[in-house]
Structures are given as C-alpha cells and as structure tokens.
Design goal:
Blueprint: H1 24-33, E1 48-49, H2 61-67, H3 78-91, E2 95-99, H4 102-113, E3 119-122, H5 127-135, E4 139-142, H6 163-173, E5 178-184, H7 197-210, E6 214-217, H8 221-231, H9 240-249, E7 253-257, E8 268-272, H10 275-288, H11 299-312, H12 315-334, E9 347-351, H13 352-355, H14 365-377, E10 379-380, E11 382-384, H15 386-389, E12 405-409, H16 417-432, E13 440-444, E14 455-458
Parallel strand pairs: 1-10, 3-4, 3-5, 5-6, 6-7
Antiparallel strand pairs: 2-8, 7-8, 9-12, 11-12, 13-14
Helix pairs in contact: 1-14, 2-11, 3-11, 4-5, 4-10, 6-7, 8-9, 12-16, 14-16
The structure holds ligand PLI.
C-alpha cells in the first residue's frame, strides 16, 4: 500500500468524544432489540458509526466560534444575511430559500415545479427526493447511464446522465410533460459516483433547446468538484471553489442538504434563479419551515453553515476527505472484498449480491450483512438495496434495484485512518465466514420510507 497517497488529517483534534465497544453479547442483544435494522440502534451501543455522513460531521473551531454569534431574531437574522451572501457567492444563484435540511428544500421544489402527471428525470434516485416528487404527482424516470447500476464496472464519472435516455424521454413524452431534470452531484445510491463537467454542460444544452429546467441536488457537490479536478482533463489546475461555481452555472437551481458538504449537523436550502418560482417558494417556506430568514434553522446553525461552506472549499480538506474514504475501499479491494467500483466520494459500498452469494435479494442480504457487521465489531452501516428502494406505488411490489449494497459512510473530520482499519478488518473477517449471514423477513414494514424504522427477524 502506498501510504504517500493518503494524506494525514489536515486538522488537530481539540475536543474528543470517548467511544467504547460493547461486548459481543451486548451487541447481539442490541441488534435483536433493534429488529436487525441499524437505524433502530442506540448511538451509545455503536463503536464506529458509519450509518451516514449526514449531520454527523465535526465542525471546526471557526464554526464553533460562529455558533456564539447566533442572532436568534425571528426575522432578519444577521446570520441569515451572511449565509445568503456566502451561498450566493459560492453557487452563483439569484435567490436562496433556507430550509431545516435537504428534504425541506425537496418538498418546496417538488410543490412549486411539478404538475401532477409530469415526469421528473433523474440520475438514479434518492429516497427522500423521489418521495417528494411522487407525493406531488411526479413520475420519476431514471436516466443515469446503465453502468451506474453495475457495481463491477470501474469507470470514471459513473453518475453521468445518459443523454440518449434523456432525448428518448423528451421524444416519447414531450418536453412540456417533463417537470425538470434532477441532476445529483454526486450520486449517493450509485456509490457516491460523480458527474463530469462535460456531462453537466451537455445536459444543459439539451434541456435549454427544449425549455426544460435543471435542478441539481447539491448535497455532495464539493466531493463532485474534487473528482472533476482529479480526473477530468482541463480542470486539474482549477480551484475547488471555481469548479463548484462552474458546475452550478449549468443549472437553474438546486436543493442542498447542508448536513453533508456544508460540514454541519443541521440545515439546508433551496437555490433558484427564476423570480416567479422563488416567489412561490417563499410563500410556501413559511408554511413548512419558518420565516424566509431562517427556514427552520437557528441563527447559530446558519452561521456555522456559512463558515462550513467556506471550510469545504479548502483543497487540503477535500483531498483528505476523498482519500480517507479511498483508503478504506482500497484496503477492502486488496482483500478481495466485493465493493462498488470505482470508490466514490462519501462512502464505500459493499456489494451484498457478491458478498452473500448464498442469499436471494428477497431475503434482504444487505440488511442482514449490515446487522452481522454490527454484531461482529460494533460498526454501524446502512442497507442501500431492496429495503431502501421500497414498493412500487401502483403495484405494491418491491422495487428490485440492481444494486444491493451496504454503505460504509464516512462522516467528515470525525474518524482517523486507524478507525478505517478496524472497519476493514471486521469486514474482511466477516467475509471469511459469510455463510453465517442469515436471511431476514419483515416483522414490521412502515408504509413510507420503510428502511428508517422497519423491523426484521431471521427467516430460517
Ligand atoms: O437528510 P436531508 O433531508 O438533509 O437530505 C436529503 C438528501 C438529499 N439528497 C441526497 C443525495 C442525500 O444523500 C440526502 C440525504 N442523505 C442521507 C440522510 C444519507 O444518509 O445519505
């Protein structure tokens, strides 16, 4: 292994939160109690928490200092004015509407931009994003390239939209029946795969020709910018800040979950150029989120987010972030563990189809693998497969995604390379005894976004 490729943490640790590993018996009891769903575990029962990188980030001393100057006015908070200025400067949008987190922005966008029966085209789906689109009567169509659905294809920019699929959708359904294109940078469920600048440009051109709007899911846009800098010809000497700015110049607006690339614990926004849509969003934000000058966030949270956004533009920060994830993935690859390739931005995804060859998809292999990983070492991960995909609204049948994965998601600035070693060692040892991973069945299945709170038991 070439340790030169993995930069040391570009920060010093000033505050620590002790973690302890529970005994094997305690872990087995906790997992049973949680219905073999890692979402239902108590955080204090977890040793290394790779459930998500959402809201689990460590803030910088500058961000914590910002928390102390929170202006908690009901209207016109100075922290909002600052956040609005920074967000406009970085992304280049005309209007920003604050929301409590990403799905708050998705709710607003879906309500103002989708007419029932219209199609919404996206590069794969994200759970909450698709939920809001469908709740507003939208029909989701996946237009990501086919290779994104194949864990074994190691190709750059696997998050790219397939332009032929988009053209076909326009020809078949008519541009007027497409509400907008939702372009996620990066694509979470494809394995954190980025989209190239060239693809963004091409999608923009095609959409402009047909008068179709494009909204980006900006959630992990800084990670996407790093991949462009590293792998797309002509961009190697650009700053991350310039890349982010250029990326968003190809969109009409964006939804942002601040809980990821803004390196905070809560917050989000909707960004939009169109004055009329902005007016509608501003009317709705007071119904669902709060005043247009806080949108569900405390003043101190808005200050932390504005500073976090600036932190995230630092080259050393983002290089370490991407390469720490890569370190974990490369350790697993060296041991022959099947993962989604190439390694994405925020997480390493275990390919549960190839990991648990003895289980069928209806036996929830990824759900079970995540449960067994926790029982083995106290590492918490997340199922991203048939359970997360939910059921078809019309037929009631399970969606059966090609990707059946367990996501090892790395929070920003929280864990060290040594933690990654513990995770890798546990996955490797589990792989050697993979037959112990047992089939599961639902004992409680919620109607909406079932993966969050479902409960299971062993089916054999
Ligand atoms: O969790 P929210 O509501 O702040 O953001 C929703 C959301 C939107 N888009 C994308 C790509 C996401 O990844 C996302 C949230 N992701 C979570 C919670 C995750 O664990 O990946």
């Amino acid at each position: 292994m070439n340790f030169q490729s993995y930069p040391a943490e570009p920060f010093k640790i000033k505050v620590v939160e002790p973690v302890v590993m529970k005994t094997r018996e305690e872990r087995i009891a906790a997992m049973k109690e949680a219905g073999y769903n890692t979402f239902n575990l108590k955080s204090e029962d977890v040793y290394i928490d790779l459930l998500t990188d959402s809201g689990t980030n460590a803030m910088s001393d500058r961000q914590w200092a910002g928390m102390m100057i929170g202006d908690e006015a009901y209207a016109g908070s100075k922290n909002w004015i600052y956040l609005e200025k920074i967000a406009k400067e970085i992304f280049g949008f005309k209007h920003i509407v604050p929301t409590h987190q990403g799905r708050g922005a998705e709710n607003l966008l879906s309500q103002i931009a989708i007419k029932p029966g219209q199609y919404v085209a996206g590069n794969m789906y994200f759970t909450t994003t698709r939920y809001h689109q469908e709740r507003c009567g939208g029909i989701f169509v996946d237009i990501i390239g086919d290779i994104a659905h194949d864990a074994t294809v190691n190709a750059p920019f696997k998050g790219n939209i397939d332009l032929d699929k988009l053209k076909k959708l326009i020809d078949d359904k008519g541009a007027e029946n497409i509400a907008y294109v939702c372009l996620a940078v990066t694509v979470n469920l494809a394995g954190g795969q980025p989209v190239s600048m060239a693809n963004m440009k091409a999608v923009r051109e095609l959409c402009s020709k047909h008068g179709i709007k494009i909204f980006f899911d900006a959630t992990r846009c800084v990670e996407n910018a790093y991949f462009i800098k590293e792998q797309e010809k002509g961009y190697e000497n650009c700053s991350i800040k310039d890349l982010v700015h250029e990326m968003f110049s190809y969109s009409d607006g964006a939804t942002m979950s601040g809980k990821k690339d803004c390196i905070v614990n809560i917050g989000g926004f909707l960004a939009i150029n169109d004055d009329e849509l902005f007016g509608k969003a501003k009317e709705l934000v007071v119904v669902y989120e709060g005043m247009p000058s806080y949108g569900g966030m405390a003043g101190r949270d808005m200050q932390a987010m504005a500073i976090g956004l600036q932190d995230s533009m630092q080259e050393e920060y983002i290089e370490h972030r991407i390469k720490q994830v890569r370190y974990l993935g490369e350790r697993l690859l060296q041991a022959g563990i099947p993962i989604i390739e190439p390694i994405g931005g925020h997480a390493v995804f275990l390919d549960a189809r190839r990991f648990c060859t003895h289980l069928k998809q209806e036996q929830f292999p990824a759900q079970s693998l995540a449960a067994f990983l926790y029982m083995d070492s106290g590492v918490r991960s997340m199922e991203r497969g048939i359970v997360s995909a939910g059921r078809d609204k019309k037929t009631g049948k399970n969606h059966t995604p090609k990707l059946e994965t367990v996501r090892l998601t790395v929070p920003r600035r929280v864990y060290t390379y040594k933690h990654m070693d513990v995770v890798a060692d546990s996955v490797i040892s589990l792989f050697k005894n993979k037959e112990q991973i047992r089939p599961l069945k639902f004992i409680y299945e919620p109607q909406q976004l079932r993966f969050f709170t479902a409960k299971f038991d062993f089916a054999d």
